[in-house]
Amino acid sequence: MAEDFSLENLPYGSVRRKSGAPPRLCVALGSNAVELAALADRLPGVPRELVDAPNLDRLLATDASTWSSLRAALQAALADGAPHEACAPLERAIPCLPFTVGDYVDFYSSLEHATNLGRMFRPDSEPLLPNWRHLPVGYHGRSGTVVVSGTPIRRPVGQRPGAGGPTWGPSRRLDLELELAYVIGGPPNALGEPIPIEHARERIFGFLLLNDWSARDIQAWEYQPLGPFLGKSFATSLSPWVVPLAALEPSRVRSPPQHPEPLEYLRGDEPWGLDVELEVALQPGGQAPHTISRTNARELYWTPVQQLVHASSNGATVRPGDLFASGTISGPERGSQGSMIELTWNGERPLRLDGTSRTFLEDGDTITITGWSPAGDPERRIGFGAVRGTILGV
Amino acid sequence: MAEDFSLENLPYGSVRRKSGAPPRLCVALGSNAVELAALADRLPGVPRELVDAPNLDRLLATDASTWSSLRAALQAALADGAPHEACAPLERAIPCLPFTVGDYVDFYSSLEHATNLGRMFRPDSEPLLPNWRHLPVGYHGRSGTVVVSGTPIRRPVGQRPGAGGPTWGPSRRLDLELELAYVIGGPPNALGEPIPIEHARERIFGFLLLNDWSARDIQAWEYQPLGPFLGKSFATSLSPWVVPLAALEPSRVRSPPQHPEPLEYLRGDEPWGLDVELEVALQPGGQAPHTISRTNARELYWTPVQQLVHASSNGATVRPGDLFASGTISGPERGSQGSMIELTWNGERPLRLDGTSRTFLEDGDTITITGWSPAGDPERRIGFGAVRGTILGV
């Protein structure tokens, strides 16, 4: 199998070499995190403060032409491999959040996911609400509880619906959501000035994997009329490595046709589907992992640039560090759904694992989401690494 | 009329002395902003970096005992007035956001407001949804578009509902929402560890006025099933001065009785209603202002500590700089509603102003929200100042 982190990928992250060491901006190359500050003398024309940094924040605040120059300089400097003193083995390096998260917006852009949830929760109505095909439905999540892969996830406690009124206790319907996310960079648009679709590309720095943990019982009771709150805000896990948009150019494909045609501001000619293979593995405590879902991000109905353009269409400023997520990615085939509630059809069809089964997540379960793009050449795949989290009991 | 900013109040803010000057941490006293760095030598025991600062961020990151010590030191240092060199007249000083906004959560805590909106939007059902009396309903708003008083508000453009599908254009139902907000400080609770109600007080630094501008047409079309997004995210205005919780101790009163009794985690013995008089004035371009609403924050059903405890009850971290808002404050009497949609009953009963009328806001309208607490002594009222914004055309 080709490795995730080739010179054509060169994703950015922030890692500590060991516990207690400061976080440093790195790229992943092969099996190492390569510290950028240690390469500074080999990067002609790159301002030192961009690479001698704890994380991506300063780079995100520059612009797309700076990102291109740095990437070209890094690919040249690392063409013959990374110098030993700059390298920390990935298996020992401790990942940190790669950037400071500004606003976090979560969309609902998979037709199959929105349809599945509509069928379960509103069985007597049209599964899709009337707005769904006209705009990328989304909402703001909690940025202060976005955590890096590996952070343990404590099962949330909260109000659960009950026939005699709500009861208080640990969530009994704890779920994952498989999502693809991207982080914004570049000079912010001024308040009141929307980002036109032809400029959206310059604001997208790169992509990550995201697990939008969800407590379905808490969410079901609280979410009307203002949307999800505590059912989601306890934690959202992010993969450590940001794959630059530049590395995904060969992965861009046509997204599914949209009917009706969206309003003018959401129309563009470029292909913005992303051919990213995705897998979810569930590992019960002390047992082997089982792949429970396989899908592809190219199935998403609304594209990343449509999401960004829509989010700023009312004049909202979008800042470097803002995080946008796709919403759960589900395909049409059995086993291609990105959440337990879909895979088990609201708990009615438990997943059979070796010697055990699951409707929702149990304490000790580890969920690992992986992703990679074939990028037209299986030998040179563009890998996202993984986002992983283990459920802790209350 | 007693002035807003007495020595018993001493609210904190960040102002520029003139255009282009750097923002500096100040308190408001009488008719001046008093720069704290200029007082540093008179504040024994106060670390210099807390007061020699652009805004409240560093102070929020300390703890409640530090806030008490600084307040006592400032009251002693300013007992005989502020030194001339530390003063900038409020009428010329340029306000900045008083702190960096972390997550912004907006609640829905007024029984009258929630009931009014339920009656308008779901005329054939119970106006309150089943969860409303069991938990403070809330959602995350956009922190990157929270702006300081005085910032012009561009009328948002967006998808408006129509019989033949959505149409694109400027919002025709632009509204204000009168709210009271508070900012969090103190050491963050660890992820997975809720804040118990008896510790909530230590995390509340102080209060402000907030105008949650709302485009009702955009909101009505987009908000199902995940809640408000672009109908709110274009701008949220905040007053420049943070009134410390310590200044509001004499303003604490019993909040309305709650039936049914809330679950254990939301119960506390202390009175957490706040006796804050509130007014909204609408000034059409080139005309005199009209007071269109008068109410009081003590009418709110859910209290600030209940909101904070609920928001962290699932283990979510709450950080210094996080902003919590009450939701629209409406009283039971005619003319005590905190939004145009309620005051005009969904546009059916226009407000009569001198020679003109309004259903929703028009370009050139200025909305000013003011607030003050009698605090048991009308001569020593605790004032919040004002939050103001003028609507610009597209």
Structural class of chain A: alpha+beta
Q: Count interface residues per chain for the largest interface.
A: A-B, 62 and 62 residues
**Any idea what the shape of chain A is?**
globular
The percent range for strand residues of chain A is: 25-35%
**Strand element count of chain A:** 26
Helical amount of chain A: 10-25%
The CATH C-level class name of the largest domain in chain A:
Alpha Beta
| Rounded radius of gyration of chain A (Å) | 21 Å
What is the CATH topology descriptor of the largest domain in chain A? Fumarylacetoacetate hydrolase, domain 2
CATH A-level architecture of the largest domain in chain A: Alpha-Beta Complex
Poorly predicted runs of chain A are none
Number of helices of chain A: 7
The CATH superfamily of the largest domain in chain A turns out to be Fumarylacetoacetase-like, C-terminal domain
**Nearest-integer average pLDDT of chain A:** 96
The biggest sheet of chain A amounts to: 8 strands, mixed
Question: In terms of quaternary structure, what is this?
Answer: homodimer
Count of domains of chain A: 2
Distance between the termini of chain A: 39 Å
